[in-house]
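On clarity, I found the account of how folds are encoded harder to follow than it need be. Since the whole study asks how a given chain folds, the encoding of that fold should be made plain. The format is easy to grasp once an entry is in front of the reader. For illustration, here is how one protein appears when written out as sequence plus structure tokens.
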Amino acid sequence: MNVKKFQVVLILFAALLLGFVGAYAGMSFADNKDGQQPAEQTDKSNAGAGEESSTSGLPGDLKKIAQAYALIQDNYLEDVEDKQLIEGAIEGMLATLEDPHTSYLNLEAMEEFNEQIESSFQGIGAEVSLVNDIVTIVSPIKDSPAEKAGLRPNDQVLSVDGESLEGLNLNEAVAKIRGEKGSEVTLEILRASATEPFEIIIVRDEIPVETVYSRTEEADGKTTGIIEITNFSEHTAVEFEEQLTELENNNIEGLVIDVRGNPGGLLNVVEDMLSLFVPEDLPYLQIEDADGNKEGFHSTLRDKKAYPISVIINEGSASASEILAVALKEMGYDIVGHTSYGKGTVQTAVPLGDGSSIKMTTFKWLSPKGEWINEVGVEPTIEVDQPEYYYSNPVQVEEPYRLDDTDPMIANFQVMLDGLGYNLDRVDGYFDANTETAVKTFQADNELEATGIVDEKTAGMIDTKVIEKIRAGEDDVQLEEALNSLYK
């Protein structure tokens, strides 16, 4: 490599570092992988800085990067593209931060990233994160293939189509999981409640655009609004306000906001929504920078809503969902369900000038009273478990299960059958005569041969019926408690 090319490489890395200066416009983003928009470059001059301005003030060790680059280009056995080395250097720097929410987004990843902001992309429809270097489901998106297949928060994805994800960064893993509508992907899943990994085959599809769903129900003789928010995307705040206004025009006497399984999204969107509820005397959110400086953000609202409010959360409620939940909790409203995911940081997508970006953690977000919920989550004021079958695992069959067998998997499908209404005397893993009768009845009800033996076909049907029942919202005791708590 000649001296001129060496200098160009050094300038490239210098500009890359200096490109962060002044890159943050007034908009930041609090979520995991999807739902962030690139911050606008406020100082365009950085991208085209000359050699003198780019190299001034740089640490001397930075020259080692250019030296390594030159050594590889001049001496490595095989040809290596400049792009590969440069992107590898960026990813290496970010990896040392050990922050699962900070990552490099190349041009292809940015295109997918922007699609997700608009809630229009193809894939399985699940938010993922790296937890202890393992790709982990934060939450499946409502009505997505991932939800229909029964994926759940905290499921670990071990392999995709037989290829291990070990050692891959999050972007590389996501690239393997995503794909075109109609294509199949096989995920190897390890669930906390399962003793062995199992496989789930998912047909990729167009991920739903709609993020807000509303309806009314009668609770304690009062008309109650229920709003479910599945993501905080580009148009969610507008959709939410429109549907809230419609509910209020129908004279609701209470409101339940359901953010279970909502992985987060755009920070400005949840801010707009909180400004509808949190009066001006209390910040709806605080932001803390790396130096410990805090800034509170206030609405112009004079008073609280005239009606009571409850929020439902679970372990799949993350980031912007937690911002909403903790703000309303500190206003004195009930939070129902399970402790949330625990993500208390804000990411900004910083453009690097060539269509790629670095999504980097830039701030902490704090509750109105200054609490940081990172890795802790928002605790409910009313903790409620769903029925046991909600937490069951797919039935894995190596050899058919029959009368007098004993196995932990038998206990699993006993719980599932009991939840489906086939009242069992025992759910301890022993395949007794009562279990055999229940299996025969289930098979007859679902047009299967009534053998009383659980083979792969019967196991698959049990899985399907349980997933259908959960998705239909049957036996939703968390929602029932949220409705009941409004008027106590």
Summary: Confidence is low (pLDDT under 50) at residues 1-29, 31-55. The longest strand covers residues 357-366.
